[in-house]
């Protein structure tokens, strides 16, 4: 790699100071941790803006940072749909409409809400799948980080100095990150994770903003970027009429329904990992404002994480004559004229050889876009800061998963099935144990991912099926008091089945039947994998929605007095009149949506 | 709960800012700044981070002393 540069003492110093602070926060918080709920739910004492930034950062794991820049280089500015369409509306919805039930029901976790609203089996289905999923994603995050560090060779020098083999870089990365994450969560619990997420938010802005500044300056600003890239890469909506006119390979309906509705609401409104941050807020109105506060930086994040991908692409590509990319987007492989490239070709870690595709062109490794840009533009000093920001995002991704895991394991699995009645002291100890357990399992998952990439892909696919119908269950549960536990449970199961069947019966263009779909038979071919995913989600959601309604109507409803505070029609509305205008969730929500609309129009 | 998160943020960014400014000053005109398009990004961005860090620290300190006076005003009548 041509611009590998040696890290200097100042770069290491920046990293060491940061990790010192991370652990320091844990140490200071330790003396405030006395009960299981202080440890697992931060004692519901977090101010709205802190919870809001944590809400944003918890999701801003490295897969997000690395993945969004990679998608920026692959698909262009349309990647911002994952923010403007795939996050903001759902964040506004969860804040305004759903938080009153999560926060107001005093549930410790999202599965506990399902227990209160429906029954044991629905809660357990959600708790079990969620626990396994969090451990897996934290393991994958760890694995991705170790792999990236190894691929970039950034820490090779100190290992050589100590006479250690290069292969140790991978193991040491995993162990060190696990120990740091374990350290600050065991010490300070959820509060520690939230505080560190806020710290990480500022660090990411501090590390990436100058990168975008330098990159944009280099390509001649936004107008320079527009000249160098095909027009489909700098417009988010204009090619959405047909899947063949835009780089994502989807059309507007599946984009809006699949991504904007099913997947986005399914994640932001039901995933305990993010909802947990809002549930830790210090009051109902703070809890409702949490996702709305998070939405403001969220809508600006595309400029921080997607633009680097676009810039890298513009600088990698030979100057593009204006207008030639009008009709069809160049497929990523065609852009592979790698000259002094910011998008490095993929290198096989074991053999050190460049990976080639069928035609013998090097396969580009979009996942290294951000780190390559850091190495390209940053001198020593800033480089340390940029890499620290990247490492911080990896760790907070893990920490977010571990704090959600220990809560669900303690309250929804241990207390529900293993020991129902015990002193809080006992659960406090169990919570610590679950934290250690979660980190150990994550390390296991990281090595599992390294050894069995395929099995990991299959597992992730299964979890995509499990998640797809979730929002239908919550929507009906919260807004239709007739919904029953049996309806919810069997609705979920049939939604999951529908997702699996749809995926098994369809295939994206140019794939062979297998993990990508079509493992039952090929009935329909989609223009892209993304289109297939969106439609899988739409099918799963619709099935769950209909089956839940039908079974609910056929089963006995719960009496109204049991559902107070759990269902919209039986819950008193919070009076907003006493709040200052900037504290009113509905008003904030409208402002957020208007701003998002403006961004969509600008980048239409 | 615990302490004001603005305090560690303030400290961390003050330290990072000061480090980068000093490093930028000592390495001014070094070849490595060709990478950042001839801009001494350590110095400039370090300066911005330093200001941000000091503002955060200041805000946290101010809130702290306000809390303390509020508490000491509240305490005597209750006892």
Can you summarize this structure?
Chain A is an all-alpha fold and 604 residues long.
Description:
- The complex is a heterodimer of chains A (604) and B (79).
- Chain A has 604 residues and is mainly α.
- Chain A has 2 domains: 9-28 and 42-451 and 573-602, Sodium/glucose cotransporter (Up-down Bundle); 455-572, no CATH class.
- Chain A is built from 23 helices and 2 strands.
- In chain A, helix 7 packs antiparallel against helix 8, helix 8 (120-152) crosses helix 10 (168-219) and helix 19 (453-467) packs across helix 21.
- The radius of gyration of chain A is 24 Å and the shape is globular.
- The model of chain A is unreliable at 319-340 (pLDDT under 50).
- Chain B is mostly helical and 79 residues long.
- Chain B has one domain.
- Helix content of chain B is 75%, strand content 0%.
- Chain B contains 2 helices and no strands.
- Chain B is rod-shaped.
- The A-B interface holds A 10, 13-14, 17-18, 21, 24-25, 28-29, 32, 38, 42-43, 45-46, 50, 188, 191, 195, 198-199, 202, 206, 210, 214, 217-218, 376-382, 385 and B 1-3, 5, 8-9, 11-13, 15-16, 19-20, 23-24, 27, 30, 32-33, 35-37, 39, 41-42, 45-46, 49, 52.
């Amino acid at each position: 790699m041509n611009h590998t540069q040696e890290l200097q003492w100042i770069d290491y110093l920046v990293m060491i100071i940061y990790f010192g602070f991370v652990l320091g926060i844990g140490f200071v918080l330790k003396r405030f941790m006395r009960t299981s709920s202080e440890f697992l739910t931060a004692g519901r004492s977090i101010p709205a803006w802190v919870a809001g930034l944590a809400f944003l950062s918890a999701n801003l794991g490295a897969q997000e940072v690395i993945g969004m820049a990679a998608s920026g280089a692959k698909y262009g500015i349309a990647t911002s749909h994952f923010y403007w369409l795939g996050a903001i509306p759902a964040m506004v919805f969860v804040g305004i409409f759903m938080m009153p039930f999560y926060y107001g029901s005093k549930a410790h976790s999202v599965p506990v809400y399902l227990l209160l609203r429906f029954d044991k089996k629905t809660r357990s289905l959600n708790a079990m799948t969620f626990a396994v999923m969090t451990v897996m994603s934290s393991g994958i995050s760890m694995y991705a980080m170790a792999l990236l560090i190894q691929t970039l060779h950034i820490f090779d020098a100190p290992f050589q100095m100590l006479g250690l083999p290069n292969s140790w870089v991978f193991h040491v990365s995993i162990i060190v990150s696990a120990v740091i994450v374990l350290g600050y969560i065991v010490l300070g619990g959820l509060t520690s994770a939230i505080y560190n997420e806020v710290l990480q938010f500022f660090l990411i802005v501090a590390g990436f903003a100058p990168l975008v500044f330098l990159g944009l300056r280099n390509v001649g600003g936004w107008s320079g970027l527009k000249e160098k890239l095909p027009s489909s890469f700098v417009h988010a909506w204009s090619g959405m009429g047909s899947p063949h006119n835009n780089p994502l390979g989807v059309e507007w309906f599946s984009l809006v329904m699949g991504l904007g509705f099913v997947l986005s609401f399914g994640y932001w409104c039901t995933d305990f990992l993010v909802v947990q941050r809002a549930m830790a807020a210090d009051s109902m109105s703070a809890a409702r404002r949490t996702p709305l506060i998070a939405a403001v930086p969220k809508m600006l994040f595309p400029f921080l994480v997607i633009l680097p991908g676009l810039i890298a692409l513009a600088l990698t590509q030979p100057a593009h004559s204006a207008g030639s990319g009008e009709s069809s987007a160049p497929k990523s492989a065609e852009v592979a004229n790698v000259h002094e490239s910011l998008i490095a070709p993929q290198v096989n870690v074991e053999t050190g050889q460049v990976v080639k595709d069928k035609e013998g062109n090097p396969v580009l490794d979009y996942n290294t876009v951000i780190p390559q840009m850091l190495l390209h533009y940053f001198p020593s000093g800033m480089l340390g800061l940029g890499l620290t920001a990247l490492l911080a995002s990896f760790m907070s991704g893990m920490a977010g998963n571990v704090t959600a895991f220990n809560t669900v394991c303690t309250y929804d699995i241990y207390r529900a099935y293993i020991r129902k009645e015990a002193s809080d002291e006992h659960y406090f100890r169990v919570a610590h144990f679950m934290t250690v357990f979660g980190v150990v399992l994550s390390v296991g998952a990281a090595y599992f991912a390294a050894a069995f990439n395929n099995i990991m892909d299959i597992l992730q696919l299964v979890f995509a099926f499990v998640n797809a119908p979730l929002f239908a269950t919550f929507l009906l549960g919260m807004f239709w008091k007739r919904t029953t536990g049996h309806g919810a449970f069997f609705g979920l199961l049939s939604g999951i089945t529908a997702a699996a069947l749809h995926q098994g019966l369809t295939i994206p263009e140019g794939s062979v039947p297998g993990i990508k779909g079509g493992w039952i038979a090929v009935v329909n071919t989609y223009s892209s994998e993304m289109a297939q995913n969106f439609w899988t989600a739409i099918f799963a959601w619709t099935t769950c929605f209909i089956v839940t309604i039908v079974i609910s109507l056929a089963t006995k409803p719960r009496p109204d007095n049991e559902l107070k505070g759990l269902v919209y029609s039986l819950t008193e509305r919070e009076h907003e009149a006493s709040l200052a205008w900037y504290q009113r969730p509905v008003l904030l929500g409208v402002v957020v949506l208007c701003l998002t609309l403006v961004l969509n129009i600008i980048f239409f | 709960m615990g302490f004001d998160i603005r305090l560690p943020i303030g400290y961390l960014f003050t330290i990072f800012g000061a480090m980068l400014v000093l490093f930028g000053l000592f390495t001014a005109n070094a070849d490595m700044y060709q990478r950042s398009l001839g801009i001494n990004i350590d110095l400039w961005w370090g300066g911005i981070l330093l200001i941000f860090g000091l503002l955060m620290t200041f805000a946290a300190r101010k809130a702290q002393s306000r809390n303390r006076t509020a508490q000491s005003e509240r305490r005597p009548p209750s006892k």
